[in-house]
Amino acid sequence: MKDVMMTDEPQWLVLARELQAIAQSGLAYADGSPFDRERYEAVRDIASKMMAMGSDEPAPRIADLFAGQRGYATPKATVRGAVFDAQGRILLVREVLDHGRWTLPGGWADVNLSPVENTIKEVREESGYIVRVTRLAAVWDRARQAHPPGPFSCYTLCFICELLGGTPTTSTETSEIGWFARDAIPEDLSLGRVLHAQIDAMFDYAANPALPTWCD
Questions:
Q1: Per the database record, which ranges form the Nudix hydrolase domain (predicted)?
Q2: What backbone torsions phi and psi does residue 132 show, to the nearest 5 degrees?
Q3: pLDDT value at position 63?
Q4: Cα distance between residue 200 and residue 186, in whole Å
Q5: Count of other CB atoms within 10 angstroms of residue 74
């Protein structure tokens, strides 16, 4: 096993995630050997049981989640758009799947679209606004950003965006759209998606293009 970099996450989660990744990649390259497949499936089963013991999720759900992963295990990717209006306010949307909590517009990156194209699409779909991406502000590793624990390794690419037009429009994913000054960010953020410190930092990045990209 490779060395696992330490994070603020509980060690049961870090190790369970590592075991799942080993099992997934092993099954992808098992070359049809029933003995190898049996061993990697056993490792995956251990990982799912560890995850269930340390979380509130039922073991069968986690087992199904892990079994659905195919190919070499790599971090998942999400995109977020930090959109600012002429008054210097940032765009936030209420996330339906997280009980209407606020977040930067964005989501999982879709295949066949570049990170910039994904960001433009997500902002338009979740808010109705048309934007232009002006710079990559941050590449965050979920495990190093104090988000609530998650089963998979995940990177978030956050882009500063310029507002071009559009009409505020909710979607099946969002229930409300709002613009907020730096000192008026809502407390009820969707912390699995974005943190207060991350939003606060985006005001600095929007104001100062010379700041280097924040990379974990």
A1: 74-202
A2: -120, 130
A3: 85
A4: 12
A5: 12
Cβ neighbour number for residue 6 with a 10 Å cutoff:
10
The reported pLDDT for the residue numbered 4 is 47
For residue 147, count other CB atoms closer than 10 A to its CB: 20
Rounded CA-CA distance 171/29 in Å is: 41
Q: How far is it, in rounded angstroms, from Cα 63 to Cα 52?
A: 9
Alpha-carbon distance 82 to 145, whole Å?
A: 17
Radius of gyration of the chain (CA): 19
Do the bridges between strand 101-103 and strand 90-95 make them parallel or antiparallel, or are there none, so unpaired? Answer: antiparallel
CB 103 within 8 A of CB 127: no
Q: How far is it, in rounded angstroms, from Cα 152 to Cα 129? A: 30
- pLDDT tens per residue across span 134-175: 999 999 999 999 998 888 889 999 999 999 999 999 999 999
The span from the CA of 77 to the CA of 97, in Å, is: 18
d(CA 78, CA 145): 14
Q: pTM value?
A: 0.79
Phi, psi dihedral angles at 112 (to 5 degrees):
70, 10
Could you tell me whether strands 154-166 and 76-84 are parallel, antiparallel, or unpaired per DSSP bridges?
A: parallel
Q: Which two tokens stand for residue 163?
A: 């507002």
Whether the per-residue pLDDT at 1 is higher than 50: the answer is no
| Residue whose C-alpha is closest to residue 78's, from 119, 136, 27 | 119
Task: Tell which residue, 126, 129, 103, 130, has the closest CA to residue 174.
Answer: 126
